[in-house]
Design goal:
Layout: E1 2-7, H1 9-19, E2 26-32, H2 41-44, H3 55-58, E3 62-63, E4 73-74
Parallel strand pairs: 1-2
Antiparallel strand pairs: 3-4
Length: 86
């Protein structure tokens, strides 16, 4: 099995590879998080070099209720309220 992860998918495929390495032949990271010194991307974002990153301000573009469908969604092409649930 070959797993491919982009962005936060890198953290996901790393977790799968750590849990069941006998089933994974390759992990492919495409501009992805590969957490090696911290447990997850959020811990990395607490570091001083992330103080000026755009991740925090981009959270305002999140729409919908991620708990309801079990996924998050962001719409970067609109100025609509991020609290609006489709």
């Amino acid at each position: 099995m070959v797993l491919v992860g982009a962005s936060l998918g890198g953290a996901t495929i790393t977790g799968v590879g750590n849990q069941i390495p006998e089933l994974v032949n390759r992990l492919v990271y495409i501009s992805a998080w590969a957490c090696v010194q911290r447990a997850n991307p959020i811990e990395y974002m607490q570091e001083p070099e992330f103080a000026d990153n755009l991740m925090g301000p981009l959270a305002a573009f999140n729409v919908g209720d991620p708990a309801r469908p079990g996924v998050g969604r962001a719409n970067y092409r609109t100025a609509e309220s991020p609290t609006r649930t489709p």
